[in-house]
Amino acid sequence: DGGITQSPKYLFRKEGQNVTLSCEQNLNHDAMYWYRQDPGQGLRLIYYSQIVNDFQKGDIAEGYSVSREKKESFPLTVTSAQKNPTAFYLCASSIGAGGYEQFFGPGTRLTVL
Amino acid sequence: AQSVTQLDSHVSVSEGTPVLLRCNYSSSYSPSLFWYVQHPNKGLQLLLKYTSAATLVKGINGFEAEFKKSETSFHLTKPSAHMSDAAEYFCVVSDGNAGNMLTFGGGTRLMVKP
User: Fold this and answer.
1) A5/A17 Cα distance (integer angstroms)
2) Which residue, A31, A83, A102, B66, has fewest beta-carbon neighbours within 10 Å?
């Protein structure tokens, strides 16, 4: 089955720790995205990548970092600099730019203890 | 710049009655418009999309939406609600520029009463 996988589904972190969220896709999509969703709110873009070895900041990139070493993988690191990291994180991919729909993974819920 | 406004944060209907979820958009270019659905603690699933072809777009699960350029609207409808339709719905706009950035509305929570 083609799709996007995210792991883990639930993640708990102590304050001051960095954590990395995994996102893998086997759709052969060029573009990948990370979003943050807070309760009762829409999605906000953290980072995106249009091609391997290239990525751009979204609207709320502070306190986050990414890498795109392989086409199918786009991990997100939540650093200790992120002041309020507790949220639901969604990864997505699309064929490319130009109005194509994005396909979403099932999400990772991060809770800071 | 593009933006999208979902006019109702919550909508409640009875099972078997029509559903109307309202969305207005703003875009500097010819937009692509999408409706996504999200069930609790799940990812988003595409319901339907408009990309400058037919203005009445049919999607999955009996949903459809009509693109009205003069009103800058893209309202989502369904003739008869089912209990399984209870979820969060997001209207999304993309102007196709700057790397296919999607702008999400704030979401509408649909509740379906038996």
Assistant:
1) 24
2) A83
- For A2-48, the DSSP string reads --EEEE-SEEEE-TT--EEEEEEE-S--SEEEEEEE-TT--EEEEEE
The answer to whether B100 contacts A31, with C-beta atoms less than 8 Å apart, is yes
| Residue A52 binned pLDDT confidence (cut-offs 50, 70, 90) | very high
Q: B4-39, pLDDT tens digit by residue?
A: 999 999 999 999 999 999 999 998 777 889 999 999
Q: pLDDT tier at B51 (50, 70, 90 boundaries)?
A: confident
How many other β-carbons are positioned within 10 Å of the β-carbon of residue A76?
A: 23
Residue B46: how many CB atoms within 10 A of its CB?
A: 16
Q: In whole angstroms, what is the distance from residue A72 CA to residue A81 CA?
A: 27
Residues of A in contact with B31 (CB under 8 A): 99
Contact residues, chain A, for B59 at CB < 8 Å:
none
Looking at the complex, does the CB of residue B114 fall below 8 Å from at least one CB of chain A? no
Helix (H) or strand (E) holding A77: strand A76-78
